TrEMBL record, chains A, B:
InterPro entries cross-referenced by the UniProt entry: TR_Rrf2-type_CS, Tscrpt_reg_Rrf2, WH-like_DNA-bd_sf, WH_DNA-bd_sf
Organism: Terrilactibacillus tamarindi
Record protein name field: Rrf2 family transcriptional regulator
PROSITE patterns: HTH_RRF2_1, HTH_RRF2_2
Keyword set, alphabetical order: DNA-binding
Keyword Transmembrane among UniProt keywords: no
Classification via Pfam families: Rrf2 (PF02082)
Length: 136, 136
DNA sequence: TAGAAACTTGATTAGATTAGTCAACAATTT
DNA sequence: AAATTGTTGACTAATCTAATCAAGTTTCTA
């Protein structure tokens, strides 16, 4: 039931950027603060950029900043974008359902559905703002 | 946030055994019913045996059966035994805590702790009996 | 002796991480 | 104003690790 390191790292980076008030900060600096390996962080920021969560500027004094208001960045969405559905099994995923040969009559499906509901309810009602302001 | 296939497969096997009323059933039969690859299932059953969840009998007409009453088999424990802690991150795991260099001041920890609580509350209050009798 | 589980080992695959190169930009130099 | 240089992000490939799956061998029991 682990969150992948990719998701954890992405959130660390967003939190870091959220505390910079739109001032640019370089990948290297983010890496120092978040303890995420530089090259891996690079890939993650790229992915966050494609999804509009961050913006970048190249060249001297370039770097990254948030691309959205922290109140508009929903943690559940970030996780989904970076590491796939929140649901513990594809057969109960709403955002990216996968059929399963057992399916009907599967006694586990209702349980996984409950797990998904609990996780989604939590992460879809938490924003980056909530984390930064320690509302949670 | 996935459950590993190991955990899913183990639960499928236990559900299958739970419906046999202590009659022995071979790995191959279990594999047919649960669609779990035979050789992988073998390893999983071995692990379940070490933890007392199942019993085996060798030789002709041998096979597996449950080692405990379905009401005593807690889903959360099965998952923990097979794929490790329920917590999404080691830093919030109660059963197998791992320290993290960020730790104090980490804004994510409280969130992960909530996730852990929700998952654990659900899976630790569900037994194999509940699944088999469709109480959930 | 035949059928079945137990066990060992290796192959395959996917995820995580690291390494290295290329392209853009801004300040500096000429 | 043009060329140069250093800083930075963008991108690709290789390495490492763990999960998953497969095959074969051994041991036990009717």
């Amino acid at each position: 039931m682990k969150v992948s390191s990719k998701g954890e790292y992405a959130l660390r980076a967003l939190i870091c950027l959220g505390g910079m008030h739109s001032k640019l900060i370089s990948i290297e600096k983010i890496s120092e603060k978040t303890l995420v390996p530089v090259h891996y962080l690079e890939q993650i920021l790229l992915q966050l950029k494609r999804n509009g969560y961050v913006q970048s500027k190249r060249g001297v004094n370039g770097g990254y900043k948030l691309g959205k208001n922290p109140k508009e960045i929903i943690i559940g969405d970030v996780i989904r974008n970076l590491e796939g559905p929140l649901a513990p099994m594809g057969c109960v995923s709403i955002t990216s359902y996968e059929s399963c040969p057992l399916e009907e009559g599967c006694l586990l499906k209702p349980l996984w559905a409950l797990v998904r509901d609990k996780i989604a309810e939590l992460l879809d009602n938490t924003t980056l703002y909530d984390l930064i302001e320690r509302k949670i």
